[in-house]
Amino acid sequence: MKKGELLYQGKAKSVYRSDTPGVLIVVFRDDITAFNGEKKDVLEGKGVYNARVSAFFFNYLEKNGIQTHYLGMEDDRTMAVRELKMIPLEVIARNIAAGSIVKKFPFTEGQPLSPPVIVTDYKNDAAGDPSINDDLIIALGFLTPDELAFVREQTLRINLLLSEFFAELGIDLVDFKIEFGRTDNGIYLGDEISMDSMRLWDQETGESLDKDVYRFGKGDVMSAYARVVERITDEMRGGNA
Ligand code: ATP
Ligand code: TYD
């Protein structure tokens, strides 16, 4: 598949048109950023790790009945995806309190959240990605009430599937962010599912295995990411996924 016009250069991925209508090409770059782009670096090989993990989870979710934008890999950091009209929401599912929720509300870091908590941010860098509620989402026409219920139900299902998978690897899925988009055939899961968009804690040591290692200078980011990739690869070999 041929890479066409560059449509969008985000903080970590570049999105291109392809020579097939309705199909886009996403390149996972090695750029890593935190705090809305204030901290940035290039970590050689990071894009490959995130592309591999995203592809793995899109496949896994598809097998479990979730419609995703994933079509296939072009090379080790380049993914072919269904073109979506993105819904400008960051849907965040949380199983354990960490990050912004602890700063904003009287939760303790590490406090289990059962049932899980779903929060949504309006994806708009200029406005600082403010949090948004259901009434605003409907009033702004981002989703109909039925679609909102569908997105919520899909998010809970994805959370269950991912949490169960990570538990098998000895990892707690603390929280994650996903994005949805639409085609004429309905709502699909888009964007990525990677160590940049999840919080993962080693159940034995409590260590972070995700972008918090970078955000807070907790150690070697690439070796933390590599540990997740290795554990997923081992699990795949074991035939459990
Ligand atoms: P952030 O890091 O805050 O998520 P960004 O825009 O910098 O934002 P990138 O991941 O670098 O993020 O860019 C990828 C862009 O491609 C995002 O805007 C995302 O919404 C968009 N996107 C993801 N999947 C699709 C798709 N299937 N069709 C169209 N656009 C998509
Ligand atoms: P959150 O605690 O809201 O923000 P921060 O990462 O700034 O502390 O993040 C919750 C989860 O969602 C975390 O795993 C990171 C992910 N996330 C993104 O991938 N992109 C985003 O823009 C935001 C706000 C969160």
Which properties best describe this structure?
241 residues, alpha+beta, D-amino Acid Aminotransferase, Chain A, domain 1, 2 domains, five-stranded antiparallel sheet, 6 helices, 34% strand, binds adenosine-5'-triphosphate, binds thymidine-5'-diphosphate
Please characterize this protein's 3D structure.
The chain has 241 residues and is of the alpha+beta class. It has two domains: 3-82, 2-Layer Sandwich (Phosphorylase Kinase, domain 1); 85-220, D-amino Acid Aminotransferase, Chain A, domain 1 (2-Layer Sandwich), CATH 3.30.470. 31% of the residues lie in helices and 34% in strands. It is built from six helices and 15 strands. The chain has helices spanning 46-63, 100-104, 134-139, 145-168, 212-215, 221-237, and strands at residues 3-9, 13-18, 23-28, 31-34, 39-42, 70-75, 78-82, 85-86, 89-96, 112-122, 131-132, 171-178, 180-183, 186-189, 198-202. The strands form four sheets. It has a five-stranded antiparallel β-sheet. Strands 11-10-9-12-15 form a five-stranded antiparallel β-sheet. A hairpin with a 4-residue loop joins strand 2 and strand 3. Helix 1 runs parallel beside helix 6. It is globular and about 45 Å long. It binds adenosine-5'-triphosphate (ATP) and thymidine-5'-diphosphate (TYD). The site of thymidine-5'-diphosphate has 14 residues, from strand 9, helix 2, strand 12 and strand 15.
